[in-house]
Design a protein that fits this description.
Shape: globular
Number of strands: 7
Structural class: alpha/beta
Distance between the termini: 32 Å
Radius of gyration: 16 Å
Helix content: 25-40%
CATH architecture: 3-Layer(aba) Sandwich
Strand order of the largest sheet: 3-2-1-4-5-7-6
Number of helices: 7
């Protein structure tokens, strides 16, 4: 995963330049509003947030706004971003701080991993999570119908969404919108709120 792409030029193109970035700060804010509202609806207490592959840190101020008492930990594999923002250096594949977090975020990371690394990453996400996981990864289906190919990095591993669901299923229940609830999370979630 430590390829040329995760340098200043990569982040400038896909995250910072208004004419080529994949999402704006407004997009991130809408997503965070949704995630926070759903977790508050479920009455899931959020005192710790782990953002694995935190990139430029778009989630940090949004977590602070919605969960002001929560501790946010941004972990990033890009040496460039760790130097620039002071993130904790690490990988979603094997990062272990010895804790399980109320909310784990992994957005736009898994598609850069080969299948073996991605399976290890999914197992690690389960180990690091005790509440909810927000997961977004570009799938084969997304590439065909959902993403803007001009703004989305195409140098990725495209797997079917069923592949991700298979490896998430032992640990999480999908509850919509990219949210997955840990099977033993301390919340009530009605059966029809869970996706089949």
């Amino acid at each position: 995963m430590a390829r040329r792409r995760f340098d200043a030029a990569y982040y400038a193109r896909f995250y910072e330049a208004a004419d080529t970035r994949v999402a704006s700060s407004r997009d991130f804010a809408k997503l965070a509003d949704f995630v926070a509202a759903y977790l508050k609806y479920l009455e899931l207490p959020v005192s710790s947030v782990l953002d694995l592959g935190c990139g430029l840190g778009a989630w940090r101020p949004l977590v602070a706004r919605h969960f002001p008492r929560a501790r946010y930990l941004g972990v990033e594999r890009s040496a460039y971003l760790c130097r620039r923002f002071g993130w904790t250096a690490g990988s979603v594949v094997d990062y272990d701080d010895g804790a399980a977090h109320d909310l784990v975020i992994c957005q736009g990371v898994l598609q850069y991993l080969d299948a073996k690394e991605a399976r290890r990453a999914l197992a690690n996400l389960a180990a690091r999570c005790k509440g909810a996981l927000y997961l977004q990864a570009v799938t084969r289906e997304d590439w065909r119908v959902a993403v803007d190919r001009e703004r989305t990095d195409g140098d990725i591993h495209l797997r079917p969404d069923a592949w991700y669901r298979k490896w998430l299923a032992p640990h999480f229940d999908p509850i919509g919108g990219g949210l997955f609830l840990k099977k033993d999370a301390p919340v009530v979630c009605y059966s029809l709120e869970r996706l089949p």
